[in-house]
Amino acid sequence: MTTLWSILGFSLLAIVVSKDSIFIEFSPDEMFSLEYVRNRLKEFNQRESGQNDFVATVPSSDSINNNSIPDINRPISDYLYQGDIFLSPSQADHLLSSRSKRQAMNTHFSAFRNSRWPRDNEGVIPYSLNGFDYNSQNLIRQAFQYWQDRTCVRFTENGRGHQIYVFHGGPEGGCFSSLGREYFTRNAWGQFVPAGYQRLSLGTSCLHFGIIIHEIGHALGFFHEHSRADRNGYIGVNTVNVDPFKVTNFDIQDANKNYNFGLPYDYGSIMQYGQYDFAWNRNYPAIYPTAGHQNYVNTMGQRFGPSFLDVLMMNKFYECLDRCKNSQIVCKNKGFNNPKNCAKCICPSGFGGQDCSVRDPGNNLGSICGSDLKAADHWQDFQYTVGSQNYWPRRDFHAYCHWHITASKGQKVQIYVHHVSGQCDNDGCFMNNVEFKMQEDLRNTGYRFCCNQQVANKSFTSAAELAILSAYARNQQYLQISYKIA
């Protein structure tokens, strides 16, 4: 009898003892599903690239960023979609079932539209942690708790039923997750059978709060921000600097199936990749902001945590906001009522208080920080240091401060940057950054920079009378600016 063994021409032993030892604990049925998806992705990439021969690219060591999810996953990239999505066999089949290239590129979201987890009052998502040390377990719990505290989604550790099986792939393990609730898998005979659990991998290099949050976002049903239907208005892809077999990692979704709920594109989304992700040569970007948005280039790829719009999107996706429709608390500055406690608001970054009407007081190593500044007709100087040079970077915490710089109604604020000192990182400013929110819609993440060469001697003008200046630091971030009425 012909089985999937012969169809795939695949040796389980070869996989187990290969460099991809991250899969060593997978069951035989999982291994068949894994290899089935790998072959479907290969077929899809061949069709989309127009090339028949797959040649794995191995970048030089100076072209690898150990904080980049796609770079961490390079050894297993041919098993993953968009760099870190662990497709089910049915999702992989959908990529190849479209009638044309354009359909395959633009309509795959329909296969995942019913992948939300239960949303009724009894719906709780079980998860388990496997192979992690004590500190890493607590870090992962914090990430699950972050989503639970700000949405109507609920989690329980070691609960019964279909669960997210979070496992540690070791020092070489990857960062990847299934996309949404996985209902079926494929066994060794090619049959679709109910899935009892789904995997979320966090190797040693993945154990940072923002990376864990990103992968949980996939498990809850989130695609990448740069997959949005409106992506081309905000992001360009430098295909010359991307492996032809990896260009499909920048697929976009059809507008009719793009469940973004009318929310604006956010360069600071936790689901947005950085400019050098999937780049053949990291001296040149793989993706870049389009004309008029260039100041967001270092905002892309941040891994501090979900943006305000990420949290709002998750609440809309899981239909949480109706729980507070009768709340007496009206949130200011486009915040929204927290479905876990409707008497409190979730605020855009820089705002705080019960109703988002005041400045967030910040947390600079245990002390409040930041202030309200009034712009005048003349330049005023300002400098500040966030964090400490002696502060050893943690994986789960960053110091942060906010400043509100205001002009009179109808006027605008101009900021001139003298100096920004911190670890220079062109891929999401992973360690530290200074953020300038100059746009009219202050829900969006602002321009972020982490070192002098990115921003020194630049000047920014706000779209309205309020500009928000913020600084984030895993160790130390210094800033020196001048400001006045524009």
List keywords for this structure.
10 helices, 5-stranded mixed beta sheet, disordered N terminus, Jelly Rolls, Collagenase (Catalytic Domain), 486 residues
Task: Note down, in words, how this protein is organized.
The chain folds into two domains: 30-49 and 65-320, 3-Layer(aba) Sandwich (Collagenase (Catalytic Domain)); 370-485, Spermadhesin, CUB domain (Jelly Rolls, Sandwich), CATH 2.60.120. Helix content is 19%, strand content 22%. The protein is built from ten helices and 22 strands. A five-stranded mixed sheet has the order 2-1-3-7-4. Residues 1-19, 58-64 and 99-112 have low confidence and may be disordered. Zn(2+) binds at residues 214, 218, 224. One of its GO terms (molecular function) is metalloendopeptidase activity. It is found in: Secreted. Residues 103-325 form the Peptidase M12A domain.
Q: Structural class, from helix and strand content?
A: alpha+beta
The neighbouring-strand order within the major sheet is 2-1-3-7-4
Cα separation of the termini: 78 Å
Q: Biggest sheet: strands, sense, closure?
A: 5 strands, mixed
Shape: globular
Give the oligomeric state of the chains in this entry, treating copies of one chain as homo and distinct chains as hetero.
Answer: single chain
The top level CATH class name of the largest domain: Alpha Beta
Number of helices: 10
Overall strand count: 22
Mean pLDDT: 85
- CATH topology description of the largest domain: Collagenase (Catalytic Domain)
Query: Over the alpha carbons, how many angstroms does the gyration radius reach?
Result: 23 Å
| Helical amount | 10-25%
Number of domains: 2
CATH architecture descriptor name of the largest domain = 3-Layer(aba) Sandwich
What is the CATH superfamily label of the largest domain? Collagenase (Catalytic Domain)
Which range does the strand content fall in? Answer: 15-25%
Low-confidence residue ranges: 1-19, 58-64, 99-112
